[in-house]
Write a structure and sequence with these properties.
two-stranded antiparallel sheet, 2% strand, globular, phosphate transport, transport
């Protein structure tokens, strides 16, 4: 019976990792594939390598947290581990049905918390620390990107000039057995640097995804002692790679096209800040959602750009007088499809001189869709925790 449960547990773990690879590859390398910098095969290879690297280094601490600090590791029997992974798999299924990227980390923690409450073994101190960071991280992501959007984004966009050419700055010369990267004859040095940045940040995003998500697939099995940490990292990383080479091909098309509607400079800022935040949280052992952080980065960056239409002194005067500040409502939380983009740093309008009509919320930000995403982010871990509690509390075989 134990062998059957282990096989089932490994199968569910592979299913979870497979779906993580499918969705995370699109997020990490969508800008690179959408801009023609990388092919899908190269994106899958890089995703596999860097997700494994992230899981084998920083991700080990997240496995420790989820496998033995929220509840004692002796609570993870094989049956309990399979049940927890089942709840994570169901969350992925629900998110796919609704077309919303559910927080796998939050759902997994919810299931483990349900187990801890049912058995009266939960560490409320550890849960308090995790939930605190769940609240702090999105706020931090919003404000960091808000400041960048208000004060730095137009200058970065003009300096990087990533959207200026229709041809990739680099291409692979396949005249020999080993493809060799070469610079396109018409590419400028700035475009080559931008291309390298797109690929490097994609690899960083893949590293972050591996660091935060490997634990979601195998932490219960590691906590149960069914497999050790190194084997768990290989299983999860391999499953992520399998997803990267298969179902990610479709998500790369979808996400790549979606992200190229978002200016490439903005996409890279969002990826860098969200990946850095999740890597930091993984380093201190906090399981957190890359999707939540990335979304709050997008909203924060757009909000910051929108507020360039008014100065702080004007906003303060409006607050004292009770009149609304002179900011176009349609531009709030928007990033636009490159509206108001300038070609030179010297042409960037000063704060308060930005044209409000150049940034339209309807080009990017859908309040109804965002509300649905936020509701499901809260709902899926809550349902996972309640369902896990009921199962572990009343089911006789646990």
């Amino acid at each position: 019976m134990a062998e059957v449960l282990l096989i089932v547990g490994l199968a569910v773990a592979v299913f979870v990792g497979f779906n993580i690879g499918g969705s995370s590859t699109g997020v990490a390398f969508g800008p690179a594939v959408g801009s023609g910098t990388l092919g899908k095969l190269a994106a899958g290879l890089l995703m596999t390598v860097f997700a494994l690297l992230g899981g084998a280094t920083v991700g080990v601490k997240v496995i420790d947290t989820m496998g033995g600090e929220i509840v004692p590791s002796d609570q993870f029997t094989l049956a309990a581990s399979v049940a927890v992974l089942f709840f994570v798999g169901m969350a992925l299924l629900v998110s796919n049905l609704f077309g919303v990227p559910a927080s796998t980390s939050m759902t997994a923690v919810g299931a483990i918390a349900g187990l801890g409450v049912a058995t009266n073994t939960i560490s409320w101190e550890t849960m308090g620390r995790i939930v605190t960071w769940w609240l702090v991280a999105p706020i931090l992501a919003f404000w960091v990107c808000g400041v960048i959007g208000r004060y730095l984004y137009p200058y970065l966009d003009a300096w990087m000039d990533l959207d200026s050419s229709d041809d990739p700055a680099l291409y692979f010369d396949r005249s020999s057995r080993i493809p060799v990267p070469r610079q396109h004859p018409n590419a400028r040095r700035r475009e080559v640097i931008g291309t390298v940045l797109v690929i490097a940040i994609g690899c960083y995003m893949a590293f972050s995804a591996g660091a935060s998500n490997v634990a979601n697939a195998v932490a219960p099995l590691v906590g149960a002692g069914a497999i050790d940490t190194s084997v768990g990292v290989v299983v999860a990383g391999g499953a992520i790679g399998l997803g990267a080479f298969t179902i990610a091909r479709r998500t790369l098309d979808t996400v790549g096209n979606d992200l190229t509607d978002l200016p490439l400079t903005a996409a890279l800022i969002v990826e860098t800040i969200s990946a850095s935040l999740i890597t930091f949280l993984s380093f201190i052992g906090i399981p957190a959602s890359l999707a939540v952080s990335a979304t709050m980065c997008i909203v924060g960056l757009g909000w910051g750009r929108a507020t360039r239409t008014t100065t702080l002194s004007d906003a303060a005067k409006a607050a004292r007088s009770g009149d609304p500040p002179p900011v176009d409502v349609d531009s709030v939380a928007a990033d636009g499809q490159g509206g108001g983009r300038v070609k030179s740093i010297t042409d960037v309008p000063s704060i308060g001189e930005e044209n409000p009509g150049s940034l339209k919320a309807s080009d990017l930000f859908d309040p109804a869709a965002t509300a649905r995403v936020v509701v499901l982010w809260v709902l899926t871990p809550s349902i996972s925790a309640v369902a896990a509690y009921l199962v572990f509390r009343f089911a006789p075989w646990f």
